[in-house]
Amino acid sequence: MLASRTLKEALEKAFDEYKGKKILKYKKKKYSYRDLHKISNMIIHYLNNLGLKYGDKLAIMAFNIPEFAFVNIAAIRMGVTVLPLNFLLKTKEIEYILKDSGVKILFIQSKFMEVIAPLTKKKILDAIILLDEGKGYPKLNEELKKCESTDINITYPVKFNDIAIIIYTSGTTGRPKGVMLSHRNIFSNIRDLIIVTKVRQRTKIITMLPLFHAYFYTATFILPLVWNMPMFFLDDLSNGKLIIETLVKERIGWLIAIPTIFNAIGKAKIPKIVKLLNALKVCISGAAPLPITTINNFKDKFGIEIHEGYGLSETSPVIAVNDPNLPTLPGSVGKPLPSTIVKIIDSDEKELPTGEIGEIIVKGPNVMVGYYNQKTETKKVIKNDWLFTGDLGKFDQQGNLYIVDRKKDLIIRNGMNIYPQEIERILMKEENIKEIAVVGLEVSHGIEMPIAFYETIDEKELPAHILRNLCKKYLADYKVPQQYKFMKELPKTPTGKVLKRELKKLKL
Which of 125, 156, 182 is a domain's end point? Predict the structure, then answer.
């Protein structure tokens, strides 16, 4: 499988080699590779009858349900590009993405039709297919019953540089941009992750975070799918009890999540017997900075460490990860993947020596093809094959990478650089802090100061002097936030990342 050049080739090898092995479970239903092969054949015939052909695009808007997997597998085998839509977006945001991408066919769960309904009158889409029960549109399961010759493969000439998926970014700098990831991009990332982590086949994994996010799409769906790692699809992140029960009952060996999830599990009241029964061997966190307190709390509960990784949608997505077979290195995201080259540069784009902070740039087969329909934006971030990430970082003497902050989040006070993540790590030492975000706000004309916004576990405000004294104990005076603002809930993306741009809009 590791010698494959496309996701299609890797999938076909998996179908041939693993046949009757169970690979996907959702609630009480289980599916084997043979099932996925047959169902995806049926969907390919159906799409073919709809007029969809090699090189076209389709969109899908759904929770982590088996139908999401079925449609994606069919598209991969067919050479059709998939756009997984963020189901938390509003109608106008969805409209922009559909128009920008030119997608004409949408597969959707009926519960999201309310968001799409206003667009049906504008005739942006040629076809809407329901992935479950609903009214007014064709239902996938009923349409597939009409398919004939489902055991016959339709062969498509899928190439390694074909676009497998377009992930639309959250639009932190304006309109969302469609990140084009090729078969080569994603497969190179999968291959590197398997090599670095040495993950064994038949290791069980939970697929619970939204698959419209590149991190979870690659690491908790495509990688397990082609590497014979049984997946347990969960579509309800609000049910913490179900997550923990699944971890224990299904003997999950790999847990890939975000700090918010690890933090919640680490602080939950769990019987000590769970620690003895759990089968977890590897925990990898990404998509946001991982506080040391989260690592410690989780280790106390489950007896294993969380290893941090780093990446972007534009890098398919992983750039670096701590080797889960070695002790974790708190604060570091580990070494770059084998086929990825990382440099730290200054403002003149000159490489900096070890230990110095600068912008992280990346080169490798995992770097995106570009932004869809946005050549100018692509040229801004990809120069001579190097992707300029906009993140600030540094290397230690052993070649481990540390993420210091986002370049745009840097606070400059009286000529001194302040990195919000450094302050956030200190404030997470306070046991009652659930989430923290430090941003630079203009407190008077031309003067920016660090301000800390936070959530607490008990949803009660903390005395400001406690937080201020904690910062003073570990930080230089110029880094200490001027104000500490309690919020019942910080504004976040669907993957739990705090939206600092929303905090910057607040007036104090």
Answer: 182
* CA-CA-CA-CA torsion sign (497, 500, 503, 505): negative
Of 133, 163, 182, the last residue of a domain is 182
Neighbours of 49 (CB within 10 A): 11
Query: Which residue type, as a one-letter code, is found at position 190?
Result: I
Structure token pair of residue 317: 């997505």
**Number of structural domains found in the chain:** 2
Q: Which tokens hold the place of 21?
A: 């092995």
Query: pLDDT digit string (tens) for 429-438?
Result: 898 998 899 9
Rg of the chain over Cα atoms, rounded to whole angstroms, equals 23
pTM value surpassing 0.90: no
In a domain, 357, yes or no: no
Phi, psi of 433 (to 5 degrees): -75, 125
Query: Quick one: which of 97, 93, 136, 96 has its CA closest to 113?
Result: 136
Give kind and range of the element (H or E) at residue 295.
Answer: helix 292-302
- Spell 461-473 as b/e; 16+ CB within 10 A means b: ebeeeebbebbee
The C-alpha atoms of residue 366 and residue 271 are separated, in whole angstroms, by: 42
Residues near 232 by beta carbon (within 8 Å), at least 6 away in sequence: 25, 26, 204, 205, 206, 207, 246, 250, 252
CATH code for the domain of 175: 3.40.50.980
Q: Which domain holds residue 164?
A: 29-182
Residue with tokens 């999950």: 252
Question: In whole angstroms, how far apart are CA 50 and each of 133, 347, 472?
Answer: 20, 51, 64
> pLDDT digit string (tens) for 463-485?
999 999 999 988 878 889 989 99
